[in-house]
Amino acid sequence: MLNFGVPIPFVSHLGFTLHRMQQGESELHYEAAPEHLNSFEVTHGGATMTLLDVTMATAARSETPDYGVVTIEMKTSFMQAARGPLVAKGRLLHRTASMAFTEASVYDGEGRLCSHATGTFKYVRRPAVDPATGQPLKNISSD
Questions:
Q1: How far apart are CA 138 and CA 31, in angstroms?
Q2: pTM for this one?
Q3: What domains can you pick out in the chain, each with its CATH number?
Q4: In the prediction, which pLDDT does 102 show?
């Protein structure tokens, strides 16, 4: 298992694990905890959308790991309920100096396509970090 290169508390809370992040591709695994299910006892759509978002962002960052990305827009389609262990696969479709265009899909344990998303991300420089505390010295800028 790999790490994302930076701490991402929400991703840690959900329990996503990174299995691939190279050459414009990413793969994450996730099994929803009981508190991440909806009233139908399947993975909540919000958790699935977060998985898709992080998978696309990781694909975008795979070629520029020193930069972060922020989501500009995302479109998600749900095909069927996401049950059990999930695998998300992302791909960087195109990039410019400041933008990344991506897609990702989530598959259930049987390999069935559950959801698909496309997303646009903006590359941002990571803020300088205080070596003593590990805390950012400034907020993320829009340049």
A1: 35
A2: 0.89
A3: 9-125 (3.10.129.10)
A4: 98
